[in-house]
Design a protein that fits this description.
Length: 397
């Protein structure tokens, strides 16, 4: 098949393209399909107009123009994505996220007689609307109204929809009026690791002690890697680490919540034990994940957290990390408590601290958890064993 993926935003620093779209795309390419990923890089202007090839997948970034308003930028990028998608004459187009630039390109494609009958598959990987990101992010009122309409329209207009989590499957069926009935074109398709990650992890593991020396890590290290949103829950981790005086906390993160997190850390009195990094290439991130002792990701029980399918947890598992995460949403699908990770009650600082201390006090147990997590992510969630479902969805679309 000739397949086009429409991305919602730039390749980085957000993780949807690298953690969700690209692993799907490369798995399809390994099966002999032609796959092109089209990206609107409004949040990373340095990528404007750039193209590259990754593991058999062609990646193309649209060009940013001189538009002055956000609306103008979005319209220009959506038009470019729709036009380029038509030029590629695909058998199927997979649009990622029911809001934003890619969803707007989907609307444009639906309006064109020449592309109205194209197979348009939609992917839903976050709780975008009311009760979710729409309430957290400070969008102007007009934009919020538009995004509400856009999400509702896209979830109803797509012929088939892939969802990253069980909660999103149920929510999508509610939008489509199929709650409690057969799938009706709505499929659960959680994230999985990119096959190239195996080699990156193996290389890092072979030099783990040298990496720790290079990084200057002599004490136990807990690591958090990923985006820090406005509504982050990392205060839970800060409270736990305050009670572990020998621990260093390495944070590799970008996002609107970084300033807030710095304030939390300062208030907890642990700033001198925190090592900060911004965005870094994935291979460098893998080295630090492998070199760290434990990985952490605390949640509270919210719609956003119940709906998400964390790329962080996937990377932690692939790197063989013993980890403490909250027992919310897809975390309990990816991890088995006390077998491949420690799951703590959401928002429970005391339990999170106790789980971290357990791993630090029992390195052999921690190593067993990390090894089991690494095996589980590849055997249960590797794309090699699941890509057939996506092919069937495309064929039926």
């Amino acid at each position: 098949m000739n397949i086009v993926h429409l991305a919602p935003f730039a390749f980085s620093p957000k993780a949807t393209v690298s953690a969700r779209i690209l692993p799907m795309a490369t798995a399809l390419a390994r099966r002999g399909h032609r796959v092109t990923v089209l990206i609107p890089p409004y949040d990373n202007p340095a990528d404007t107009g750039k193209t590259w090839e990754r593991e058999g997948v062609q990646v193309e970034n649209a060009r940013l123009g001189n538009e002055k308003s956000g609306v103008g930028v979005y319209l220009s990028l959506a038009n470019q994505l729709a036009r380029r998608a038509r030029q590629l004459q695909p058998d199927v187009i997979h649009i990622f996220k029911p809001v934003g630039v890619a969803a707007l390109a989907m609307w444009l494609l639906k309006r064109q007689p020449a592309t109205r009958d194209l197979k348009l598959i939609l992917d839903n990987d976050d709780w975008e609307g009311r009760g979710g990101w729409l309430d957290v992010n400070p969008y102007p009122p007009a934009q919020k109204l538009f995004m509400q309409w856009q999400e509702r329209w896209a979830l109803r207009a797509a012929s088939q929809i892939t969802c990253a989590s069980e909660v999103l499957v149920e929510r999508t069926r509610q939008f489509r009026g199929t709650r409690g009935r057969s799938a009706n074109g709505v499929y659960l398709l959680p994230n999985g690791p990119d096959e190239a990650l195996r080699a990156q992890v193996a290389q890092a593991q072979a030099k783990r002690e040298a990496l720790r020396t290079q990084f200057g890590w002599r004490q136990p290290v807990a690591i958090y890697a990923g985006t820090v949103p406005r509504n982050h829950d990392l205060d839970i981790a800060a409270c736990a680490i305050r009670r572990l005086p020998d621990m260093r906390w390495v944070i590799i993160a970008t996002g609107d919540g970084v300033t807030s997190l710095r304030q939390v850390i300062a208030s907890a009195g642990i700033a001198h034990r925190v090592e900060w990094h911004g965005f870094m290439p994935h291979a460098q991130l893998v080295e630090r994940l492998v070199a760290a002792d434990i990985a952490i990701y605390p949640y509270r029980d919210t719609n956003i957290n119940r709906a998400k399918c964390s790329g962080k947890v996937m990377d932690y598992m692939a790197c063989g990390k013993p980890m403490v995460v909250s027992d919310v949403g897809m975390n309990r699908v990816y991890l088995e408590h006390a077998r491949s990770g420690l799951l703590t009650p959401p928002g429970d600082t005391e339990a999170f601290y106790a789980a971290m201390k357990c791993l630090l006090d029992d390195p052999a147990f921690a190593d067993r958890l990390g090894g089991a997590a690494q095996q589980r992510i590849w055997t249960q969630f590797g794309w090699a064993g699941r890509i057939g479902l996506l092919e069937r969805i495309y064929a039926a679309g």
